[in-house]
Amino acid sequence: MDNDTFTPINHISLGDPAPDFVATTTHGEIQFHDYIRNSWAILFSHPADFTPVCTTEFLGFAEKQEEFDKRGVKLIGLSIDSVYSHIAWIKAMKEHFDVEVKFPVIADVGAEVAKKYSMIHPKISTTQAVRTVVIINPTGEVAFIVTYPMGVGRNIDEIIRILDALAVVYEKKVATPANWKAGESALMPPPNTSSDAEKRTAKYKDDPNYQDWYLCKTKI
């Protein structure tokens, strides 16, 4: 294929509307916006089927399917492989590891979706997608983007932690501290004026969650 075929045509950023698309998947044709409507969603790409790191990642996502379901999260995978390759790979994982991949996998042979989501990095590969994770919030905005090197597998527990943090920030209008885990206290947004800072100090100075006017925890 000509390298220009795989040159990214978009660059997505946090807060952007998630690009829509229609794609062939292992669950049939999917209209992306319809599939994820009013839900948290994870669209993630992998370089190729029947490869070692990708196999361990897919097994990891599949083994945590119940955790994603509990959170109402829609998962969808993607690579620049045919739907027949995806089907064979999923069957092989079931046969060899007794793990069922229940989420759809996009057959992005022409890289149309990968280009929309900046998943092609030509200096790494012009024929494979990199390991990108895009989390989309219930209003259809890009809430999180991360790209892993080809040789580094993703940590699925960390992705779930990020989902939990994003949901708390989205729903409660708070922030989360470093190393935050579900169930722990969050952080109040910082005051924007001197007057608000003084009011916070007056209100919370005797609260054990109060550290200073700009650093104040809150239970959620």
The DSSP helix count reads: 7
Count of structural domains: 2
What series of H and E elements makes up the topology?
EEHEHHEHEHEEHEHEE
What would you call the structural class? alpha+beta
| Distance, first to last CA | 52 Å
Residues in helix, % = 25-40%
Across the major sheet, the strand order is 5-4-3-6-7
**Spans with pLDDT under 50 lasting ≥5 residues?**
1-6
CATH level-1 class of the largest domain:
Alpha Beta
Largest sheet: 5 strands, mixed
Strand content: 15-25%
- CATH architectural label of the largest domain: 3-Layer(aba) Sandwich
Radius of gyration: 20 Å
- At the fourth level of CATH, the homologous superfamily of the largest domain is Glutaredoxin
Q: Label the overall shape.
A: elongated
Mean pLDDT: 94
Question: What name does the CATH topology of the largest domain carry?
Answer: Glutaredoxin
DSSP strand tally: 10
